[in-house]
Write a structure and sequence with these properties.
The complex is a heterodimer. Helices cover 0% and strands 50% of the residues of chain A. Chain A is an all-beta fold. The radius of gyration of chain A is 13 Å and the shape is globular. Chain B is an all-beta fold. In chain B, the strands form 3 sheets. In chain B, strands 2, 4, 5, 6, 9, 12 and 13 form a 7-stranded mixed sheet that branches. A 4-stranded antiparallel sheet of chain B has the order 1-3-8-7, with no helix packed on it. A two-stranded antiparallel ribbon of chain B has the order 10-11. In chain B, β5 and β6 form a beta hairpin. Chain B is globular. The N and C termini of chain B lie far apart (39 Å). The chains are: A mainly beta, B mainly beta.
Amino acid sequence: QTVVTQEPSLTVSPGGTVTLTCASTTGAVTSSYYPTWFQQKPGQAPRALIYSTNNRHSWTPARFSGSLLGGKAALTLSGVQPEDEAEYYCLLYYGGAWVFGGGTKVTVL
Amino acid sequence: EVQLVESGGGLAQPGRSLRLSCTASGFIFGDYGLSWFRQAPGKGLEWVGFIRSKSYGGTTEYAASVKGRISISRDDSKSIAYLQMISLKTEDTAVYYCSRGASTYHYDRGTYWPWGFDYWGQGTLLTVSS
């Protein structure tokens, strides 16, 4: 069974930078997995941030960037703002299905 | 303004059937694929299924965990997508979200798949309990 792994939690200071990763038990994540990233705040629906590795949606702040890093998909938050405190999920495409990672809780402290 | 509104959730008994709806506005519904996702209380997100636009065959894909118990359909004249669920189980208890497929596709396994998903609805809670 395919498992997508994310860091359970990360803490970052306001104004700092943090990188979240998304790994696959099947091997290296490549652009063919079309990595997608979502932000979810408590009690709210998910909000799409990044699609197909590194493409921002029109509403995605420039401080959010997607990439591939060391065989994983990555989401980097630069110049973190207090409102960036949230759960972040990655989604990977696996030839006929999509699988989410377990999510990373980002705390801004 | 793009909007997706889910409805049809509530309390259902195990073994029964239920249909959820996703009503869209603010865009040409027929031009886009739609996906359903769910989130059990306190848990992560799970992809449930997807329906392509008629331009891409209007075909459907389902997660292995629910295949055989769900079907997704669409009525482009009403801008509504449906998620029909049968033989409900307590583990189907979740908030169900619909989301619009991205307008860019890649080709794989003989058909087309969106690069991702952009707009989401606010979700509808389905509780399966006796």
